Amino acid sequence: MATPYPQRHPLMSGPFEPIRFECAYADLVVAGDWPAELEGALYRIGPNPQFAPRGPYNPLQGDGMVHAFRIANGCVDYRNRWVRTSRWRLEREAGRALFATSDPRGHDPSVAGAPDDGAANTNLVFHHGRLLALEEGHPPIEIDPESLETAGPFDFGGGLPGSMTAHPKIDPVSGEMIAFCNFPGGRFDGSLELYEASRSGEVVRRRLEGPFPALVHDFAITPRNLVFVVCPVTVSMERVRAGGPAIAWEPALGTRVAVVPRDGGEAHWYRAPPCMAWHLLNAFEDGGNIVVDLCQQAAPAFPFADGSVSPEADLRQYLARWTLDPVSEIVAIGRLSEIVCEYPRIDERKTGSAYRFGFFATCGGPGTGDLVHRGLGRYDHSTGRMEVWRGNPDEALSEPVFAPRRPDAAEGDGWLLATIFSERSNRSRLAIFDANRLEDGPLAMAHLDHRVPAGFHGIFVAAP
Ligand SMILES: [Fe+2]
Asked: How far, in Å, from the CA of 220 to the mean position of ligand 1?
């Protein structure tokens, strides 16, 4: 029998509690009118440790599990699979956790020097016909889009020498995939390695020297530039050796923003006040300026270097617009909404260009006293209004993913897909919303008889 998970751990219980099994269901029970025009698959991924963790649990290193909802003709099929990382296979064989998720010094001695291709738990990308599971400390792992079986690490034919961000961007015009590596070569020296993979998968690489060894999780692209918001959350092994935290909040360093020309030109750096931004919504060029929209918090949950922590209210995340003026070198920052929101998504056909709508998880999250989000939001730049749909108080909403009605439909004309976990029933369902009528609530739901643990990110891949 399996060892129970530590049920009292806040990130291993309730909406976060992992599941132990893999399954495939054809034709889920659907309530409501599921739009027959939508054809494709929603893939979601998140940490789902197969065994009770070894030492303190860090979900950023929990085994990745993929959940796929395949949609056609108003019907929804479901399948889930763990990503077979090298860690997962070794632990499966041993029947217990061998890798510590918080501190590698806690690994079982039997896996010292063992190959380690990461946790594959943060996000997915579909590029050049390949579905890749991503975790920023390691290379992507290729997954079969139908069976979800693991093919293994994918390095673009040798073009990707190291790890890759979990938030690559696909240029909607050229089809290129643009990505980066935080801490290339495992050195915590502040540099980033930038990658551009053509539609056919060839990779061009170059280096960006950053101001300090910051944790950079996401970035944005425009047709001519890459934009990196480098927040003062630093990683330092010297600090660990001195008994301090590996990752620390150092607001005195301030925030820097790099605008890197895609044609190979020199990066232009801006200074901004200290803050944390995990996820960027979008960026675009506006005359000579660059506009960047992101979810900003006054401080992250990471401790200061001395171990003290920021006030809880500073952790709240708000949508903000940063305007970068290359002449005055000023970053103008304006909060767009007073509604707390995270997991920002757009209609990805508008990646890098002026756009109207942003979609979010809302009603909860860091700084609100509730770890999970209880609703979804849609921000409209033309009205400056965040429209919100709130689920029942016992329900947890995933990040919403937009799927257009047709390839040529207007921006935002389509659907939002999100999983809803009910604490009362301990089950999840896939909900579909009309993206233009979020406040009306779901059009239809496809019901599972088990939970989909609150994970991180998802993507929709339209049927060819
Ligand atoms: Fe993320």
From this structure: 13
